[in-house]
Amino acid sequence: GDSVTQMEGPVTLSEEAFLTINCTYTATGYPSLFWYVQYPGEGLQLLLKATKADDKGSNKGFEATYRKETTSFHLEKGSVQVSDSAVYFCALSGRGGSNYQLIWGAGTKLIIKP
Amino acid sequence: GAGVSQTPSNKVTEKGKYVELRCDPISGHTALYWYRQSLGQGPEFLIYFQGTGAADDSGLPNDRFFAVRPEGSVSTLKIQRTERGDSAVYLCASSFNTGGTDTQYFGPGTRLTVL
Asked: Looking at CB atoms within 10 Å, which of A43, A106, B91, B114 has the fewest?
């Protein structure tokens, strides 16, 4: 069945460092891909999404490109801030013809030190 | 505008008891979803409503779990004869429409602890 694999955390970086969080997926059909973020004590929030191959989603300085050939959707940011500390989840929509279910990775905890 | 709200935020119960978890979706959203998140894992799909009907309940783990949405807005997730393994954060989400591209907006969750 469909699945999402994320790099394990925690990932610890210094402020202004470059960030990459890897995400790969297995899916039938052509899913949409999402990154959600969960800040401490808060609910899941959509960070960015891409709905077809080669699309780039971007928000708050974060970017991710839907790569069908490598089945990847890696999250990147050029210069992280302490306020980016959170848990990041990669997800895809759909399971076969059911395109509303979100299938999630396990999450990657990001810690940014000043 | 108001986001998705869930009550209670925390629920502690004893094994074998019955619990109800409530979700208020964003006004005007026709689709509503329940997920369950165990510690250190991503959310796991439970059930999806389109309007008043459960369009897909394939994620409910067994017949102790049931959910309703009688008026197409508020939803209640009901768990009978709770077990320790039911302990998790139960998340509710809503979206304007259904479809893989639609953004699901999440509530803060209800943390259920079964002693």
From this structure: A106
Contact A110, A19 (CB under 8 A): yes
Examine the pLDDT at A94 and tell me if it is beyond 70.
no
> For the residues A100-105, what does the mean pLDDT come to?
87
Amino acid (1-letter code) at residue A76: E
Distances (CA, A) of B96 to B26, B27, B31, B75: 8, 9, 6, 16
Give A96's pLDDT tier (boundaries 50, 70, 90).
very low
Of A32, A89, A99, the CB nearest to B42: A89
A36 neighbourhood in chain B, CB within 8 Å: 106
In sequence order, the 6+-apart residues with CB closer than 8 A to the CB of A77 are A18, A19, A61, A62, A63, A84
Tell me the C-alpha distance between A100 and B64, whole Å.
24
List of chain A residues whose C-beta atoms are within 8 Å of the C-beta of residue B33: 100, 102
